[in-house]
Prior knowledge:
Blueprint: E1 3-14, E2 17-28, E3 32-36, H1 43-51, E4 58-63, E5 66-67, H2 73-79, E6 81-84, H3 96-108, H4 113-117, H5 125-137, H6 153-165, E7 171-175, H7 183-200, E8 203-207, H8 211-217, E9 220-225, E10 228-234, H9 235-239, H10 242-249
Parallel strand pairs: 3-8, 3-9, 6-7, 7-8
Antiparallel strand pairs: 1-2, 1-4, 4-5, 9-10
Amino acid sequence: MTAVLDARGITKTFSGITALRDVSLEVREAERVGIIGPNGAGKTTFFNCLLGVLKPDRGTVLLDGDDLSGLPVHERSKRGIGRTFQRIELFNESTVREHLLIAERIRRGDGRLWKDLLGLGKPKAEELTACDEVLELLGLGDLADEPIEHLSLGQGRLVEVGRALMTKPRLLLLDEPSSGLDRQETTDLATTLRTVQAEQGFAILLVEHDVELVSSFTERCYALDFGTLITEGTTAEVLESAAVREAYLGPGAVA
Length: 255
């Protein structure tokens, strides 16, 4: 199976403190892969190195075999990396469709975004069609014209996913997507993501503290602790490993 993402030897230090030490990871075509680890393990730092928010001290990030080193965030997005955030980053007083429309404008790179900010940009028919297709795919079609502040947290998460999907990603990075959601909302989100992924074929890399979601949603998993990769394998193997139990519970937890 082809590797969509191949991150090799990612190392990052801050003021002499090593946040990531020689971390390598791959995600294959249409695969769902998890990254787990206790707070401070380096998960978000790793995501930011993949996205170009941070520049690693050493290591390379390959997307479909192309080296992304030196490319800024927006260029990596154009190459096919989409992302959602741990804290929902949506704009009040904007509708659901408008959020996706702005993402579509950025993807097209046609220089019209400034018109949106001034309220002068009239959407093209093809832009509206692209937005509405994603909204229907996510079950948000009936909410297209609703202001963001009227949505539930779970619906807001789906809008973030929709915004990421407008970039037509090869790889979707999900940063704590269950944060703030109840169990039913988490289950519904996972179901929708599976359905959309099956239709569009992108790969998913998930950072998540909800072990139940990781267990039910991902096929393979990597575990970090203090910036070091401590184990990898099928999700079941990783969650059952002594190294992971010790990382979460402390020395002696295995016994």
